[in-house]
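Class, carefully examine what follows:
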Amino acid sequence: MTAKTTKPKTLSPPKTAKAQCLCGAVTMEIDVPARWAFHDHGAAARVAHGAAYATYVGSWRKRFRILGGESCIAHFENEAAGITRHFCATCGTPLYYETTRSPHMVNIPRALFTSRTGREPRYHLRYAEMQDWTYTGETLSPLKGFPGVLFERPKKKKRALPEGMF
């Protein structure tokens, strides 16, 4: 019987997804896959991003790194909610937020990533707070004379039946 020799396994470095702010002053990365991804319809996310909702990628803090521009990061702390939001002091881009309830996690806006994060946003937080003006997938049509602009056609009003007809 001959002894079988095996090579020790070498671990390849983790794959990463890079992110940056609008002006490029702050760069970050996470190891992929991310922990989760979600849409936040709550008022705080809506106002912080100036949008109907914000889409975030959640990462374990130990898998999140700031690569450059740390001196450009400012923060806003909402002590009552236990949330600290970090943003670029140069261009104002929301960078990430962390909560006292989950100190081992950071949530980064999905739009900041230049590559895939290994997770699709399948969760909706604070869905009951969704605004009535939020686009929810209605059919869009091209706006004549404005290339690249689409619009929602108005819904047809139902005609009222004359009284006493049925």
Observations:
- The radius of gyration is 23 Å.
- Residues 130 and 149 are 24 Å apart (CA to CA).
